[in-house]
């Protein structure tokens, strides 16, 4: 019977092509608007490391002056980074499976190719555990060694894009590239790493949805060469002093730190360490506010930094509101379409069709409209996302549709059509055969 009703639905759509096209277009526009918005929101709020996000923690301690402090106030964004002193202490703590400290760097790259001039590139200076912690895929080579990490050797890992720009498709491992005015030995090349959001280093000039970093050099090497940071810094802490060495000895906060624990159940152990550390620092005259020490896992961290802000959520609700408006219009069009078929329903009922048969027929017909609206809505959504991606590089990283969102488009379209068709279908089932036969 399903196949029979499906064919009836297709025939019915050809009877009034203008009205059918209007219903499909109305449904497609509503679905496209909502799906394209939800697609962007889905990409922005996605978990980049779902298998370990509850084991990755950002510590937040308050080393700001006591003046102006209001007990119980929420931590500010300026407290989301730590000082060099605290980073070194955390690295020596041996707490957890891995520890990583990092900061953004940027500067000129001098290619060996004569046809390519000097250009600027942005990268990061992390410790070696960064690679095992956030799992970027390698195309060639590997991260630098623990000895390189400890000594601050002049080694570097390139992104695939930067490697291809410098040497084409060749393997550059073992060669030297001049970055920031110094030669660095290439130990590895990452494969394309388009993780979204870039939760590992949201704070910086690129943000959560910027393009991938172009190179990675050891944290100790960057510090040894007094490489300037590329990102935000707050110097409202204690013992501030001028110069690079003064910054290292001061309370200026400009570094990002991550702990990786063996399991999410070890969060309490890490919290105890953080509280004990703050207590020791207060004995040394630091952390006078005695503010609560906080831990954020990866998803909590993105929430704290408002990776998906209220404007994005409001846009999603408005898109669904627009879809609801389109459904209301579709309901009106379906009522108009089904009302002129009252005589057909009356004859079918007189010939023995039950209300259930009529309901099934019209509902399947409505689902056909939903499928057609889904195909058109998908095309419109792809077009909308293409337009959005052209607005900025950041939007280009999130304005793309994956398989789950593709399936959601069809499911949403068919479901929306079925919901819209419930009232018209119910009204069609209420037709009294006797009255319709007398009017013929």
SSE arrangement:
Elements: H1 2-15, H2 17-44, E1 56-60, H3 84-92, E2 98-110, E3 119-126, H4 129-134, E4 138-141, H5 146-151, E5 155-158, H6 160-167, E6 176-179, E7 182-190, E8 215-216, H7 219-224, H8 244-248, E9 256-260, H9 267-283, E10 294-297, H10 298-304, H11 310-339, H12 342-350, H13 355-389, H14 393-398, H15 403-429, H16 433-438
Parallel strand pairs: 5-7
Antiparallel strand pairs: 1-9, 1-10, 2-3, 2-6, 2-9, 4-7, 5-8, 6-7
Fold and architecture overview:
It contains 16 helices and 10 strands. The relative contact order is 0.19. 50% of the residues lie in helices and 13% in strands. The protein is α+β, with helices and mostly antiparallel strands and 440 residues long. The chain folds into 2 domains: 2-45 and 309-438, no CATH class; 53-304, no CATH class. One of its GO terms (molecular function) is transmembrane transporter activity. Residues 318-432 form the ABC3 transporter permease C-terminal domain. Pfam families: FtsX, MacB_PCD.
